Every structure is written in C-alpha cells, then in structure tokens.
Design the sequence.
C-alpha cells in the first residue's frame, strides 16, 4: 500500500534529489519547517583577525591553504586545529574568498605516473621566465622532488637563456644538498622537457656521473611534467604576482627567500596540506 507521501515523492522525481529528505517531509507538507539560518560559532570573532592577517600576507591563498597555515599556527600555540568548513564560512561571510578564475580547465588524458611514493626516486625540472618593471627578463630553472615537492636547487639568469652549463651546475648542487656527496647513492630519474640545455650530450653524460638518469617528456605532452608546471604556476601566482619587480638585481636578491618560504611554509593538497619541509620531517620521524 502506497501512502500519499510516497506518491508525492515518486511524482516529483523521487527521494532526496527533488523532494527533500524524508525526515523533513512532514514539516514541509504542513508548512511548519523553519528556515535555516547561517551558523556562527562564538570563537569566530577570535579566528577572523587571524584569517585577515594571513590574507594580508598571502593574498593569493584560498580557504584550504589558509586553513592549513592557520592550523599550523594554532597547534604551535597549543590549540586545536581549525576545520576547513569553518574557515570557508568565515571567509565567505567577510568577503575574503578568492574569485574563481572564470574559465574551465580542459581535460587531458594522461596515464604516466608522475607522483612518486618516496623521495629521491624522481626529480622533475623545468624553467620559467618573467619580466621586471624596467623590461629586464629573468629566466630560471629548478629541480623539484616528485614526492616531497621540495625545490632542491635553482639557477637564474638575466636577459639570457638557461644554458647547459647552468643546468649542470644546478644538478651538482642538487645532489650535494640532498646526499651530502658528489653522487647519488641510488639512481634518481631527472625528468625534463626536450630543451637543449637538458638534452645536450655533455649534460646527459654529467647527469649519469652524478647518479642521475635523464628522462624526457613526450613531444606535445607538457602534462607529463605536471609537477614542475604546478610549481611554476604557484611561484608566479603566490610570489611573483605580489612581489615588487623593479629590476633584475632586486629580483635576484629575493628569489632565494621566496623559494625557501615555499619549501618551509607552502601547504600542498597532495601532502595533506603540509609544506615540503613538514612532509619530509614527518616521513623521517616515521621511518
């Protein structure tokens, strides 16, 4: 036997998708349901100034990264972490949410394995460029670990291209920093595009002498080096776009600090909203 309520639900399309939750159906049918109001927590007044201070310092951060940084600060002070839904609500109520980009990302099929399960199995390398206010052009290159997302080394030049010599010096610095030696203890893949500084014979030979295995992305497949592309986007969005760029001398003096800030503080969704250094520390403690 079907009751009137069931017929109403079936006729309207069925269940919770169109008719609403069954637990609330009686109130809706009899007009006694109360309008839901925005929820406020008593401690929101104390959290809001912290969020405003973080947004003033890092205006390109969305609510997820704000949550990660805020929770890090609260735990350091002996308090419990804050929930991301609460941060979203507070930021929305105070017009602090970032605007959407306004365009949809194209979907691209990609079956390559980019993220690695352990550090020092694959490093990804790429370059970027940006223009200073006086017209000088900065070009830089870097290797990033495909597991812990740390920028291991970098090179930057002014009004010139990254050369094979720059790439080789960068690789040597990366190996020395990671292993405190002149050769990696195991084979580390070095993934890059097909640019001449990476594909040069001298670079490939030198890489193997360091214990690195040169790997190159397929032609017309930039997503294969997505780890590096993601860092380029982050650096331009969260650092370059909010930093004064009067001239090359000023910019070169700031790049090291910006990369150090990224390694130390930048939360990653792929690292459970931890920074590269936090992730490495946690992995070392559990090893």
Sequence:
């Amino acid at each position: 036997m079907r009751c009137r309520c069931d017929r109403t639900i079936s006729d309207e399309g069925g269940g919770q998708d169109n008719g609403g939750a069954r637990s609330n159906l009686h109130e809706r049918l009899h007009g006694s349901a109360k309008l839901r109001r925005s929820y406020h927590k008593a401690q929101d007044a104390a959290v809001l100034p912290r969020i405003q201070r973080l947004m003033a310092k890092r205006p390109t951060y969305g609510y997820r990264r704000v949550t990660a940084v805020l929770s890090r600060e609260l735990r350091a002070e002996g308090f419990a972490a804050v929930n991301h839904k609460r941060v979203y609500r507070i930021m929305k109520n105070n017009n602090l949410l970032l605007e959407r980009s306004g365009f949809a990302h194209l979907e691209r099929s990609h079956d390559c394995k980019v993220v690695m399960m352990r550090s020092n199995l694959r490093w990804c390398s790429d370059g970027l460029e940006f223009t200073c206010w006086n017209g000088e052009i900065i070009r830089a290159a870097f290797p990033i670990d495909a597991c812990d997302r740390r920028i291991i080394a970098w090179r930057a030049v002014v009004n010139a291209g990254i050369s094979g010599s720059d790439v080789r010096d960068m690789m040597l610095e990366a190996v020395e920093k990671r292993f405190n030696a002149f050769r990696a203890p195991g084979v580390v893949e070095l993934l890059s595009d097909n640019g001449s500084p990476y594909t040069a014979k001298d670079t490939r030979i030198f890489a193997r002498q360091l214990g690195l295995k040169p790997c190159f992305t397929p032609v017309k497949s930039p997503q294969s080096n997505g780890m590096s592309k993601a860092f380029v986007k982050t650096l331009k969005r969260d650092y370059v776009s909010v930093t004064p760029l009067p001239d090359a001398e000023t910019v070169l003096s700031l790049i090291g600090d910006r990369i150090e800030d990224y390694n130390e503080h930048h939360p990653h969704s792929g690292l459970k909203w931890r920074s590269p250094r936090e992730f490495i520390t946690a992995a070392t403690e559990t090893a």
